[in-house]
Amino acid sequence: MYKQAEEIPSLNPMFVKVWNLQTVPKNKNFLWRLLNGAIAVEDRLQTRGIESADGCLMCGEEKETINHIMFQCTLARQVWAFSLVPSPLNGFGSSIFTNMCHLLDMSKNPCLTP
User: Fold this and answer.
1) Using the 8-state DSSP alphabet, how is residue 87 labeled?
2) Which phi and psi angles does 95 have, rounded to 5°?
3) DSSP 8-state secondary structure symbol assigned to residue 109
4) pTM, whole model, 2 decimals?
5) Are 28 and 18 in contact (CB under 8 A)?
6) Given 5, 29, 84, 110, which residue has the most CB atoms within 10 angstroms?
């Protein structure tokens, strides 16, 4: 049990940041669900016994994950490119948690707030 706790960091600090964002509750709820893996994408549906082998319908990637849909899909990358949010130095990576940490850190940037 302790080994698992070492390998998987606590998400509590990220949840605190999400709930403290200056945005509408609907957005906070979405981000909380995103971090909890509660978004209906192919890999999450398969863990619930729902078979789907379509992959990403936007770009044709074989595996559709939350991280792919939010950060790595060609459509998502275009949306991020048009946004005012600076991308990480090496672009968004394969970890939803690292990508969300970057966004939550960027939320403190006074240049990005209206």
Assistant:
1) P
2) -105, 120
3) -
4) 0.81
5) yes
6) 29
End-to-end CA distance of the chain: 44
Specify the DSSP class assigned to residue 12. Answer: H
Question: Of 106, 82, 102, 83, which Cα lies nearest the Cα of 91?
Answer: 102
Instruction: Give me 77's structure tokens.
Output: 């990358």
For 59-79, what is each residue's pLDDT tens digit? 988 889 999 999 999 999 999
In a 10 Å sphere around its CB, with 0-12 CB exposed, 13-18 middle and 19+ buried, how is residue 56 labelled?
buried
Residues 6 or more apart in contact with residue 3 via CB below 8 angstroms: none
Q: From 39, 17, 11, select the one nearest 106 (Cα to Cα).
A: 17
Measured between alpha carbons, how far is 57 from 39 in angstroms, rounded to an integer?
16
